[in-house]
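Our collaborator T.R. sent over the components below with a one-line note: 'Predict the complex.' Nothing else. No constraints on interfaces, no templates requested, no preferences about which chain binds where. So this is a plain run: every listed entity goes in together, and whatever single assembly comes back becomes the starting point for the next discussion.
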Amino acid sequence: MEESTIYSRINTPYPNHELLFYAEHNFYMLCIHITLMEYRYASTIEETCRLLERGFMLIAGGTEVNLKHKAERLVDINGLGLDYVEDRGDRIAIGSTARIAQIEASELLEEHKALKMAAMRFTTSVRHLATIGGNIAESVPSADTAPPLLVFDAEAVTSSLNGERTVPVESLFKGLRRNSLNKGEMIKEFLLPRFEGRSIFRKVGRTDEDLAVTSMAISISKETKIALGSAAEVPMRARKAEEALAYSIEKACGALLSETKPVSNIEASKDYRKKLEVELLKECLREVNA
Amino acid sequence: MKIEFEINGKRANVDCDPQKSLLRVIREDLGLTGTKYCCGSGECGACTVLFDGKPVTSCIMKAAQVNGHRIETIEGIRKKEEFKAIEKAFIAKGALQCGYCTPAFVLYAYYILNNNSKTRKKTRDEIRKEVSGVYCRCGSYQKVIDAIEALLRGEETYLLPEGSDVVGKGVERKDYREKIEGRAIYAYDLKPLIKGRDVLYLKFLRSPYAFARIKRIDTSRVKGAELILTCENVPEIYFTTAGQSYPEASPYDTKVLNNPVRYVGEPVAIVAANSEELAEEALKDIFIEYEVMKPILDPEESLKLNDEIKIHPEGNVVGEIHEVVGDPDEGFKEADVIVDRIYETQMQKHIHMEPYASFSYWDKNTLVVETGSQVVYHCRRTISRILNLPENRIRVLSHTMGGGFGDRQEMTLEHYVSLVTYLTGKPCFASLTREEQFFLSRRRHRAKIRIKLGAKRDGKLTAMSMKALSDTGAYGSHGVTVTTNMGSMTLPLYTKHCKNIGFDATIVYTNTPIAGAFRGYGTVQGGFALESAMDELAEALSMDPIDLRLENVIEKGAIDPISEVLSEGGEAIPRKIESCGIEEALRKGRELFNWDGKKKEAIGVACGMKGSGVAGFEFANATARLNEDGTVTVSIGAADIGQGAESAMAQIAAQASGISFKDIKVTSADTERSPFDMGTYASSVTYVTGMAVKRAAEDLRKKILDRAERAYGRKAELKDSMLEGKPIKEFAMDCFYGNDKEELCGKGSAIDLTSPPPFTAHFVELDVNKATGEVRIKRYLAMSDIGGVINPLAAEGQIQGGILQGIGYALFEDMLFDEEGRLLNPNLTNYKIPSALDAPDIESHFIESNEPSGPFGAKSCGEIAFVPVAPAIANAVYKATGIRFRKLPITRERIAMS
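Returned assembly:
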C-alpha cells in the first residue's frame, strides 16, 4: 500500500471543518450548530424596525431564513397584518407577508397573469409558508415571483424609523442574497400598477418541481417587457432585448444574450441557460401572442 | 423559550430551545410520531402538518413560528368526521405502500376536501399539482390522486373481500389502517419513544478525503462521550455488509471502521454520548491526522492503475466473470448485420423515504437490535461473527419500513449500535439524517457496458456478447452478484434462435460511496444496454423494433442457456422456462398502444426480465398456527418493506387453508420469533416465502380436516373460517380445552430451484421539447407477466412504483462529484426524485401466465417494472430527436445541448 501513495500532505490539526460544510444542507441537524438566541414577535412596523436596527433578522414563512441563514436573533412579522392582496384603485397592493398560495388564489390578480403563473409553479411543499416579501428580499436569482414583478413595473414600499419610501422592485436586488434595504428597513408591501394586456411566465428546471434553471416573464401592453430569473446574479429586466424586439425577434435574442450573465453550477451549465433564455423568449412571445 | 399553541384541539405549552424545528417539537417534545422526518429541507413534505388549516413543511419551521397558532397533525385529523371517507378511499384505491408519506397525503386530502369549490370540481391535474408537495418514492402518486378524485366525486368506494377466497383479488392490506392513521411505528420513530431511557446516541465523524490513511487519532480533548470507536479499537474482523446467503458472494473487505478510509463520508470515528447534541459536539474535538492519497474516482482508471494505486490490498478488481455459451465468434460470422455499442449508466440513490435508524439493547442476556432490515437473519449471522456472540443471544427484528428497494439488504447501522451496546451494556440508538444517508447507505452500481448483437437479415439473432465494467465503490458489497445479473438476467430474453453468447464483466473498486443492492439488481444496467442495442439493431435491419423482439424472445419450455453456465455464486442450475408471457405482452401491448398507428410519433418500446428469488439459494419457512378463537397466526422470516408482503402471505394462507383473510395475521422478520428466511430481496417473497406459506397453510388445513373427520366421522369442509357450516372457533377451542388436546400448527418450507423469470414489455409515448430538453410522458403502458397475480391492487402499485423510479433514473437522477471525490448533491434539493408533477398516469395490464412452481401460479413482481423504463424512454427520445443517448441520465440539458 505504501507504494501506492502518489502524493501525501499533512493536514492542519482541524480537518473536520468540512463536516460543517455538509451539515449546512441539513436543518434537522443544523439547529444543533447554530445558536439562535432570541425570537421576538413584533406587533407594529415601528417595533420591527427598532429590532432590525439592533441587528435582528426578519422571519415570516421562514423557508429561506431557517435553511440558509445562521440568525442569532429573529423577529417574527406575521403579526403585522401584512398578508393582504388589496385593491387600491389604480394599483393592487400585495403585503410583504402574503403567502405564495394567496397570490395563486387571488382574484384581484387575474390581470397580472404572469404573477399568478409564477405562484402556480412555486415549490408546492412550501407555498403556504413562503411569502412574496421573503422571495424578493432574499435576492436570489431563481426567485419565481421576481420576473413577473419586474415586467409589471412593481414598486416596493419600504418602512423604517425614518418613514416610508417607494422604490422600484428592480432596485432592491443588489447581489446574491444581498438586497439594497438599509439597516432597520423592511419591505412593507408591493404595488402593482393596473395592467391591461397579456402576460406569461415560464420556467424550466431539472424537473417540473425544481427551482428555475431559467425563468422568464413577459408582459405586453403598450410596450413589451421581458424579465428573467437565474440569468444573472439576481433577477433582471432584459432592456436591450426589449428594445431590439422593435426590429426582430432574432435581434432580440441576440441582444438578450449580450445582457444576461448566467452561471454554471450543479443545476445547469451557463451554455444551457443561455440556450434556454433564447428558446424561452421565442416560445413566450409565440404563446403570449397566440 | 416558552411557546404556546394549539395542537389537535388541545393547548400545548412547550419550553424549548428557540432554534428547535417544529418537527422536532412535535415528534420529540409532544411524542406525535405520525409526522415524519425525511429530507429536512422542505422538499419532500413527509413532515407536513396543517398550520392554521394549511399544509406546511414542519421540518423547516422553527417551533417559535407557531406560537399562538393552530397546528393539526395526523393524530388530530384521524379523529375528524371527514377522515373516515379519506381512509376508505385510500384503502379502496390502494393509495399507499410503505406508508411513510401517507399521513402527509392524508393531510393534503383533508385540506383539498375542505377547500373544494362546490361549483367546480378539481381536475385530475389540479389534484396532482396540489399533492405534489409530498414525495413518494414507492410511487403511489397515481393511486393517491385516484383516491382524492374518488373523494371529490363522492364516489362510493367498494368493500374489499375478506373471506378465504381472496387470491387474485384486491384486499385491504393488513398494514393500511395503521399507516393511514399515522400509528405505524418505523425504526426512525423509536427515538421519541425511547426518551427517558438511559440511551446512548451515535454520531459519525466522516472522512473529508476520498482516500486517506489515518496517521494519528487524538480523542484526548473530547468531553461528554461515553465511547469513541475508531479504527484503532474496533474488532479485527473483516466481513461484508451485504446481506446474502452464506458464504456471501461479496468479499470480506471491511471492518467496523477502516484505515485507510476509502471515500468521502466514510465513518472515521463513532461517538456514543447521552444525547445527539453531545455526540455532535464531541465530534468537533476529535483530531485526525490524515495522509491523503490520490483517489480513484473513475472505474476505468481503477482498472488501468491497478498496479500503482491499490484501493484494497488485493488490488482494485473485486471479481471477474467470463462465460461463454456456444461460439460467439462463429455466431458473429454468420450475422448479416452487427451492432456494437457502448452504453453507460450512472449511480442512483434509493431515497427510501424513511432514513435508516437502529436501536439496540440487552434484554435477558440477549442483544436485541430493532431496525428496519430486509435481511434480519443475515444481520444476525454477521453480528454474531463480529461480536463473537452466539446467534441465540442475538435478536434482530424489523419494524415497519419506510421503503427499502435493496438499501436494507445490508447492515447499515445494525453492527454499529450492537457493538456499542455490547461494549457499554447500554441501549444505543442511531439514526441518519437525509444527508448522512447519502454517505452511509448504498447506491446503484455505475456501469459501462459494451454490447454486440449479430443478426440475420430476417432478424434472427446469431450471437450476443456483453462486456461490463461495473463500479462497486469503496467496498465490494453485492458487486459480483449485481454485475452477474447484468448479463445473466437480461440476455436470456432473446435466446429463441441465438445460442452463441459471451458475457464478460469486471467489477472494480473506486473511491466513491459504496454500491449495493437496488431494485433491478444489475438487470437495469444490462437492460438499458441490451434494449437500446435491440432498437439500434432493428433500425440497422429496417425492422420494426417489436417485430425484431417477437422474432427472438424466449418461449415456454425453453432452457435458459445462460443459466447452464452462470449463477449468482455457487453451481449453475439449468432453468427451464415453465411460464412465459412475453410474446403475449408484446402483441397485446402493441394493439392496446396502437403502436402501428403511431409510427411517426415519439414512441419507444423495451422489454425486461428478472428472476424470482435466487436459484439454488433462496430458502424460506413458514408456520401457521391455529389460535383458541379460530384465528390463525402465520409466521415468516421475510420482511414487509412496504410492498405488502404480509398481506400477500395472508391471502395465500387464506386461500390455501380456508381460514378467512380477516382472521389471519402475519408476523415477520424477527429472528427470535420467525422461522428462518433469507430475507426480502431478489423479488423472492411472494414466490419463495409464498410457497412456504402455502405449504404451511395446506398443512394446517389438513390437520384441521383430519381432526374434524375424526370428530364428526365424515369428511369436513372448511371455507371462509366456517367448518361444516359453523364458525371454526368452537372447533379451535376444543383443540385446546377438549379431551383430545393438540395445538394445530402447519409448517412449510420452500427452496428456489429455478428462479422463474417474470417478463414485461413497456410502451411509452413522449412529447419532447427539443429546444428546452423537457420530456413529457404522454402515455405509458406496462404489460407485465408476473405469473398469477395475488393482489392486483398491490401488484399494480409495485409496477407504478418501479416505473416511477425508472423515470427518475432515465431522465435526471445522478450522483455528482467534484474532482476530489466529494458528493455535490447529498440532499433532495439537488438530487431530484420524481414528484407527482413528473409522474404520468400509467396504464398497467397483467398477462396471467401460470407458473407451476409458484404459489397459485405466482412469479415475482417487485423489480421487473424498473428494468425496461430507461431504454423505452431512450428509444422514444431517439425517435423524437434523432439523437441516440447511450448514457444515462438523459437530462433536459443533454437533450437541449445535443
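Summary for T.R.: Chain B has a mean pLDDT of 96.
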